[in-house]
UniProtKB/TrEMBL annotation:
Family stated for the protein in its record: Belongs to the LysR transcriptional regulatory family.
Source organism of this protein record: Pelagirhabdus alkalitolerans
UniProtKB keywords: DNA-binding, Transcription, Transcription regulation
Keyword rRNA-binding tagged: no
Protein name per Swiss-Prot or TrEMBL: DNA-binding transcriptional regulator, LysR family
Domain HTH lysR-type: 1-60
SUPFAM superfamilies in the cross-refs: Periplasmic binding protein-like II (SSF53850), Winged helix' DNA-binding domain (SSF46785)
InterPro entries in UniProt: LysR_HTH_N, LysR_subst-bd, WH-like_DNA-bd_sf, WH_DNA-bd_sf
PANTHER family, alphabetized: HTH-TYPE TRANSCRIPTIONAL REGULATOR, HTH-TYPE TRANSCRIPTIONAL REGULATOR CITR
Any one GO molecular-function label of the UniProt entry: transcription cis-regulatory region binding
Coiled coil: none
Lineage, top ranks: Bacteria, Bacillati, Bacillota, Bacilli, Bacillales
Length: 301
């Protein structure tokens, strides 16, 4: 079946080749098939587009006008096809991603660096935010992917875990001798608690777990940065609720000290999230597959 676009492509080729037989050779069509296509187009437009010459065919005035528009339209189609090919080959494109500062710094940067080396032509737009903020942006289609704390209890969201992380508590040098042996959770509230802000996923996760054990978390300090949690603990302002992987360097350097617990907080995951109902672009799909394949790339600390 010959489509309208096919008819215009044949029309343009006849105009450029100044004849039906030459156009047929270029299009791998018989001269009669080319003639039939032009006849169909002329009937649909109710206009003569060509007149016969000794050398073949030439455009009528109406045909010249139509050719200007058809040529421009076909060039746009070809440009679109080329752009789509480049996107499929990841020679161009943009990936809009949401991620928290701490996850980016301590977990994602090695992935991003390796992916950029492999696909240097892709552009990245990275938006920072809490897990809840990123899920809101994802549902509003303002980002393609979110790298955040799991679990996400949203039916519209597809999520895949990448890393297991461990919530824990740390103290400063002043209190380290108080926690040489594992302690019960109830003992934590004897000290000022330094915690993430109330709207954070991490705060809710730890708070729910402690509440399930009969311990009510009432922070003395509520902060908006993982880095500040560690800094406040270093200053002996209290004990801080942190993710071990994000505080690893400070613990290793003995700037802060992890508090051993008789009942450890269950591990959770950092993972990648996207909308179930929206097909991923080639760039996004490739990045998701890259992350899942390269989970073992050494993370920064």
């Amino acid at each position: 079946m010959t489509t309208k676009l096919d008819l215009y492509r044949i029309f343009a080729m006849v105009a450029e080749q100044n004849g039906f037989s030459k156009a047929g050779v270029k299009l791998h069509m018989s001269q009669s098939a080319v003639s039939q296509a032009i006849k169909q187009l002329e009937e649909e437009l109710d206009t003569h587009l060509f007149y016969r010459t000794k050398k073949g065919a030439a455009l009528t005035k109406e045909g010249e006008t139509m050719y200007e528009y058809v040529q421009s339209a076909l060039q746009l189609f070809y440009a679109g096809e080329q752009a789509l090919h480049k996107m499929k080959q990841l020679e161009t494109g943009e990936l809009k991603m949401g991620v928290g500062d701490a996850i980016m710094k301590h977990l994602l940067l090695p992935f991003l660096e390796a992916f950029h080396r492999e696909y240097p032509m892709l552009k990245f737009k990275v938006i920072n935010g809490t897990t809840y903020e990123l899920i809101h942006l994802l549902k509003a289609s303002e980002i393609d992917l979110a790298i955040c704390h799991l679990p996400i209890e949203e039916n519209a969201i597809e999520s895949h875990p990448l890393y297991d992380v461990q919530d824990t508590f740390v103290c400063g040098p002043k209190d380290k001798n108080e926690f040489q042996e594992p302690v019960d959770l109830e003992r934590l509230i004897d000290y000022p608690i330094i915690s993430f802000e109330s709207k954070s996923h991490s705060r809710h996760y730890v708070q729910r777990f402690l509440k399930s054990k009969g311990v009510l978390l009432e922070p003395a300090f509520e902060l908006g940065s993982y880095e500040l949690l560690v800094e406040f603990a270093k200053l002996n302002l209290g004990i801080a609720s942190v993710v071990r992987e994000f505080a690893h360097q400070a613990i290793q350097d003995q700037d802060v000290f992890e508090i051993p617990l008789n009942t450890p907080i269950p591990k959770r995951s950092v993972g990648i999230c996207y909308l179930k109902s929206v097909p991923l672009s080639m760039a996004s799909l490739t990045f998701v597959e890259f992350l899942q394949k390269h989970k073992t790339i050494e993370r920064t600390s």
